[in-house]
Design brief:
Blueprint: E1 11-15, E2 18-25, E3 29-35, E4 45-50, E5 53-58, E6 65-68, E7 73-83, E8 86-93, H1 112-130
Antiparallel strand pairs: 1-2, 2-3, 3-8, 4-5, 5-6, 7-8
Length: about 160
């Protein structure tokens, strides 16, 4: 049932009409998807994930991305992989349930409607996680959705 509340589509961040990356999020993580240029050996790509900063690029060149993150991440469980021409960066949220408006601080922010939809989806994911016998995939909120990180005492830690 949790799959029903997974991100349905990726958000796209573009600059000068070119896609920079796509991204989505769950309660626990933010995933970034960066298209790799063709004909570059995989061993030349690199990624450096710090608590509040991300750098990715091709060795010997200026970084493709070199920006502060929108919120802190757990570096011991954040990582990047290369697969099928895409660099997939998995950022483990330090604050589980926090709704990110973008992975990169101050850039490509979701509009208020999309941010509200993300917060509602994460709130339903939280309900699903806390009540695994129920199906929240068709649930709806009337009015403003509470913050999934802090609602009713916050998210329980394991």
């Amino acid at each position: 049932m949790a799959e029903k509340l997974a991100p349905e589509k990726r958000h796209s961040f573009t600059h000068n009409d070119q896609k920079v990356f796509e991204w989505d999020q769950t309660l626990d993580e933010v995933n970034m998807y960066i298209d790799l240029p063709p004909n570059v050996p995989k061993k030349l790509f690199y990624g450096k994930i710090q608590s509040q900063h991300l750098e990715v690029g091709i060795k010997g060149n200026p970084p493709y991305l070199n920006h502060d993150l929108a919120a802190p991440v757990k570096t011991d469980s954040s990582f990047w992989t290369l697969e099928d021409g895409i660099m997939h960066v998995t950022l483990q949220k330090r604050d589980k349930g926090q709704t990110w408006a973008s992975p990169i601080k101050g850039q490509g922010l979701l509009d208020s409607y999309s941010a509200d939809l993300e917060q509602k989806r994460l709130m339903l994911q939280r309900f699903q996680e806390e009540n695994p016998g129920f199906d929240f995939s068709q649930a709806q909120f009337n009015g403003t959705c509470p913050d999934p990180r802090t609602f009713m005492g916050g998210i329980r830690s394991d």
